Amino acid sequence: MKSSQACRELRRVSKHVNRWLRAQPNVGEESLTDWMLYSLSSRLPWVKYRKFTRYQESHQSGADWEWWFVSQNAALGARVQAKKFDPGADVYPALAYKPRTGLQIKTLLQASARDSLVPLYILYTSLPKPRVLCPLKPKRKTGDGAFVAVAQQVYDLFVRPGRVKILADSVVQRSNPLSCLMCCPLVASDDPVLGLWKHFSQYFRAGEYTGVDLLRPAAPAHVMALMGENEAPPDRERGDIGALVVFDLREESAPDRFAAVRTHGWSRDCDPPSNFGVKLSAGWCPARRPSRLQCRQLHGVTPAADRSRRGSR
């Protein structure tokens, strides 16, 4: 399944970013972003990546790239701004960066709202034991170096109140690892794009912030063009984003919630097995904490599904 492949690759690039930051703390966020997006597109042929030649991110959109997730049933787009945080440093100046045209994060929020996109931050940092929103992540060192946060939450919690010292760990606590975009059980047990919207809604209250459902029945023309479905509109070499990235998740269907379940265990490094979505949806839970019952309830596995699983033994 494409979501399983993306899960592995997102985890791989996140760990590489962590190692890179520890080896070369002064590496720029632009270098990290360019490498990460190129690496994903080079290893996954269905990930489409186009780097634009002319843009001024802070002036028009506040974003480094536009990211689309497209399945058979839906499409979801995001505007993404990358930030690099040094562990132990005050990160408020980075979050409240203000070029001549105004506060960058407000530009990102306004441009995303105008175009009905999710405003995201990708946070690069080498924190040794980051704490995140997901209750299923182990309370130990994971090696992640890239995290996802919704910009509206970052603005409300850390920028709007005014100037105070903010540590990287405080912001990362309001995020999830980058790999959760495709590894989350909410994604693996559903249409991947519908599951991704559930992930944003559950962990980041994305629907409450935007006031609308940002899911679309189909991707816009410039996204379909990058996927090879039609000709590119003439205005896409514009100056509002640095790159366009598309995860073409079509040809992937949701797993059968009552399928047979293999019972091999969860690996120590939390890499999902190949039939992860099927196992979870049928009542099996990978988490050590919270309890298996709590995990089933968290991800919507019904008692009927659990009885079906037990009856099939």
Helix-strand blueprint:
Elements: H1 2-23, H2 29-43, E1 47-51, H3 57-60, E2 65-70, E3 75-84, H4 92-95, H5 104-114, E4 118-124, E5 146-150, H6 151-159, H7 168-172, E6 176-177, H8 180-183, H9 185-188, H10 192-204, H11 206-210, H12 221-226, E7 243-248, H13 276-281, H14 292-298, H15 303-311
Parallel strand pairs: 2-7, 3-4
Antiparallel strand pairs: 1-7, 2-3, 4-5, 5-6
Helix pairs in contact: 1-2
Specify the number of helices.
15
In total, the number of strands is: 7
- Across the major sheet, the strand order is 1-7-2-3-4-5-6
Query: Roughly what percent helix?
Result: 25-40%
Percent of residues in beta strands: 5-15%
Low-confidence stretches: 234-238, 253-310
Amino- and carboxy-terminal Cα gap: 26 Å
What summary fits the major beta sheet? Answer: 7 strands, mixed
* Shape designation: globular
Rg computed from alpha carbons, rounded to a whole number of angstroms: 19 Å
Order of helices and strands: HHEHEEHHEEHHEHHHHHEHHH
Number of domains: 2
On the 0-100 scale, what is the average pLDDT? 77
The secondary-structure class comes to alpha/beta
